[in-house]
Amino acid sequence: MYKNILIPVVFDDEYDTEASYQVARALADEDAKVTITHVLEAVPNYIRAEIPGERLEATRKDVEKALEASATAYPGAVTELTTGHPGRAIVSYAEGHDIDCIVLASHRPGLEDYFLGSTASRVVRHAKCAVHVLR
After folding, report:
1. CA dist 69 → 4, 14, 15, 63, 93 (Å)
2. Could you tell me how far CA 87 lies from the centroid of its own chain?
3. pLDDT tens sequence across 84-129
């Protein structure tokens, strides 16, 4: 069905990464490319100045390891760690890499984003490809 799938993941207990992988498997063509991504939110400069550079680098490496470990559940998938605002970064990555489907988990939202989480809501509204949201 889809040839180029993007699966954004978050390393919180609220998110069921395996469910995202199962949905992606069901939607993927036999020879589909699957990319698993995590978006690190950018640290503002006024905060970055107070954090030792080696701590920032260690955190990035820890997240890269977690992403690689998560991706082992989806053989053949590639990983991509990006930085920025999650909703914008996901949409931008999808547009720049010819993604035709995004499989995205959403948390239980608050009143300000009652039906979808804020990241999922932004992706659904702005992505130019199909978006499958899991809750």
Report:
1. 21, 18, 16, 10, 21
2. 9
3. 999 999 999 999 999 999 999 886 555 444 445 688 889 999 999 9
